[in-house]
Amino acid sequence: MVSTAIAIHQPQPVKRSDEVVIIGGGLAGLFCALKLAPKAVTVLAAAPIGRGASSAWAQAGIAAAVGPGDTIESHVNDTIIAGDGIVDEAIIRMMASEASDRIHDLLGYGVPFDRDLEGHLAVSREAAHSQSRIVRVKGDMAGRAIMEALVISVRKTPSIRVLEGYVVEDLIVEDGRVTGVIARDKAGAGEELHRITGSNVVMATGGVGHLYEVTTNPTEARGGGIGMAARAGARMADMEFVQFHPTAIDVGKDPAPLATEALRGHGATLHNRAGERFMLALHKDAELAPRDVVARGIFAEVKAGRGAFLDCRAAVPDFASEFPTVFGYCQEAGIDPAREMIPVVPAAHYFMGGIWTDADGRSSLPGFWACGECTSTGAHGANRLASNSLLEAVVFSARIAEALKAEIEPDAPQGWQDGSVTSTEYLVEKDHPNMALLRQVMSANFGVLRDGDGMRPALGTILRLARDSHSMRFDNVVTTAKLIAVCALNRTESRGGHFRTDFPAEDAAWKRRTLLTLEQAHAIIPDLMEF
Ligand code: SIN
């Protein structure tokens, strides 16, 4: 938390402090800001809004039971099965029930979802969904289209002040209540720290993919917001559960381009270099098995030197028009998916853990709310069902707005938006050597497969990196890594995205979520290290 001794400056003009401060310019943050209108909101974004956000890179779309023959109950059941025993049923039922209304909100903000010939929303299929229920845009362009529409709406909404290029480094906590944030401008390179206060703070900073060497997430998704919340004392949940997407395109890029699961939903198959369709032997649903199962299947082939390849040749004859984003990635890498198979590898993709919230997005700290990937609401359990992430972001950010609107009195004053700071500059932060080492340690020991003998010394390295931290931003990031490590060592079983080769079976005694604060995590470290 912030020390009051540092030089702190106030961005101008700040007219009053009953605004809501939202940290993050991705889907959850912008949707929350829009739903809060006409209440005064300040959105702080490290990059120009919509950029540097994982949501803008989402290819498939939003899961919603709106297709013919589909039901909310079926969506709930599929999510519970994928989540491997620890999904909060009340939360997912609420989320699935509100999906249709949120899709209509997005249509209202101008998102051009695909329609069928009769004008109904078109839906496609993804792994572990028993029905076609992914609402999409031009095949694989949902994330980009959603973010473009929201950015336009935000810029037109007078109650939303946007401060672009502001990197939040800490939360201000006064008498136990979160009352604001400390941020650095110029995309984090600014010399001055700014103090921005509000009646409530909403964290919407995304996930943790960049803690790993192979990830589909933007560089910004390194868990900084989650660690900041933990340092301020917020309760965390399910920090051991990281989801690895089975099919990142293996062309040595950081971040790794994604080959959407919808390709497998269209019938694309997985093969090793010998041409074997290896998923047939691993699960009855083969390529459409839950994501963790497919990721482990591919990981085993890659580790054994046999490689893994996605064959779309028969299943997707019109690749360029059906999956333009993936087609573009393949072209850049010199791969023609109509004639060749695509080399794939599992990549850190989504974090099921994060800041614990209740059904309205309230954290355990007064005045502090959270939505989107930085949270753990209980909706995903141990393994998220594809395309439930954008749904969770819009459902919870709308619920936060609803709850806050009931408690905030006046609307935004005239001219509120004039205080915006816009920036078109998109600076991608280069990894400090400590960050590079952290990514290496996380990948080697807290990835698709884990075991105690690897994790214990790795936690030791993380503790040393935390002790010798070079900046407040790294304090936040390494705190998140530490919590992942502690919770992964602590859960002595395998479940969903958390697979331990030393405890390969599920254990009924562990059929529960992990809930803890940073202080509680620190208290169990000595026992974990000694095991
Ligand atoms: C994908 O398109 O495969 C990713 C969808 C998701 O992660 O929900």
Structure notes:
The chain has a five-stranded parallel sheet, covered by helices on one side. The chain has a four-stranded mixed sheet with strand order 1-10-9-8. The protein is α/β, with parallel strands linked by helices and 531 residues long. It contains 14 helices and 20 strands. It is globular and about 65 Å long. It folds into three domains: 4-240 and 352-419, FAD/NAD(P)-binding domain (3-Layer(bba) Sandwich), CATH 3.50.50; 248-345, Succinate dehydrogenase/fumarate reductase flavoprotein, catalytic domain (Flavocytochrome C3, Chain A, domain 1), CATH 3.90.700.10; 435-529, Fumarate reductase/succinate dehydrogenase flavoprotein-like, C-terminal domain (Methane Monooxygenase Hydroxylase, Chain G, domain 1), CATH 1.20.58. Succinic acid (SIN) binds next to strand 16.
Helices and strands in order:
Elements: E1 8-9, E2 20-23, H1 27-36, E3 41-45, E4 62-63, H2 72-82, H3 89-108, E5 123-124, E6 134-135, H4 142-155, E7 160-164, E8 167-174, E9 177-184, E10 193-197, E11 200-203, H5 224-231, E12 236-237, E13 242-249, H6 262-265, E14 269-271, H7 291-303, E15 309-311, H8 319-322, H9 324-332, E16 342-351, E17 354-356, E18 368-370, E19 375-376, H10 388-407, H11 433-445, H12 452-467, H13 472-490, E20 515-516, H14 518-530
Parallel strand pairs: 1-10, 2-3, 2-11, 3-7, 11-18, 17-19
Antiparallel strand pairs: 4-6, 5-6, 8-9, 9-10, 12-17, 12-20, 13-16, 14-15, 15-16
The structure holds succinic acid (SIN).
CATH topology description of the largest domain: FAD/NAD(P)-binding domain
* Unreliable residue runs: 2-6, 12-16
Strand order of the largest sheet: 7-3-2-11-18
Radius of gyration: 22 Å
- Helix percent band: 25-40%
The total count of helices amounts to 14
